[in-house]
C-alpha cells in the first residue's frame, strides 16, 4: 500500500536550509523559508534540509542525498524526500495540506476553500486556550477527562469554525459542567465512515477506548483517536475508566 508520509512541523528559526536554483519558483521557495525564519544557504552549506528549484535537479539531488540531506525538488515528487504543503495560517494556528506530491493544484484549491472557511478569530482562540492551559489542567487533572471536555467545547461553545469573542474561553470555563464518561453504544447504520453523524464522529474522537464487534470495518475504527485503545469483544467491561465507545453493525 502506498504511504503518504508522516506530516511534521519543523522549527526552522535560525537554522540553515539549502536552496539551489534561480527564477520565479526559487524566489517563491526563498520567501517561504525566510517567512519560517530559516537561514537560506547555498549547496555547500551545512544543513539537514534542501530545496531544489533548477532546470537539471537530478545531479544536485544525488549530491545532497549522499550527504544525508533530505531534499525537496520542485515539480519532481519522484526525487523528493519530503514535500511542501499548501498552508493556511491563523497565527499561531497553521494548517498544512499535502497530497504526497500528487497534485499541487489540488492542495492549492483546498487551501482556498479553507481560507474562506476559517474565521480570523481562530488564532485568538488558540492564544486564549494557551493562556488558560494551567486553569484547564487544574479543572480537569485527568488527561482523558480534560481531552473530552475540550472536545465537547469544540463541538459547541468553542466551535473553531465560528467567530469567537476574546472572552470565549473564559466564559466556557465559567459555565462548563462535568464531562462524559462511561460506555456509549453506537449501532452503525453502514460500513461507510462518511455516514457517521457529527455526534458519533465526535465521540470516536474523544473516546479513551473503542470496543467493537469483529465485523466493524477498519475504515470506521480509524476515525477514532490514534492513541485510543481498540478492543475486539462481544461486550465491553462495565468498570472501565474514562469514556468507552462500543461499536456494532446495525441490523
Features:
four-stranded parallel β-sheet; single chain; 34% helix; Rossmann fold; Double Stranded RNA Binding Domain; 20% strand; 251 residues; 4 domains; alpha/beta
Model description:
The protein is of the alpha/beta class and 251 residues long. It has four domains: 71 residues, Rossmann fold; 34 residues, Double Stranded RNA Binding Domain, CATH 3.30.160; 54 residues, no CATH class; 68 residues, Tetrapyrrole methylase, N-terminal domain (Cobalt-precorrin-4 Transmethylase, domain 1, 3-Layer(aba) Sandwich). A hairpin with a 2-residue loop joins strand 5 and strand 6. The two termini are 32 Å apart.
Draw up the topology in text.
Layout: E1 16-21, H1 24-35, E2 39-41, E3 49-53, H2 57-66, E4 70-73, E5 86-90, E6 93-97, H3 104-117, H4 122-131, H5 133-139, H6 143-154, H7 168-175, E7 182-188, H8 198-206, E8 209-212, H9 218-221, E9 229-232, E10 243-249
Parallel strand pairs: 1-2, 1-3, 3-4, 7-10, 8-9, 8-10
Antiparallel strand pairs: 5-6
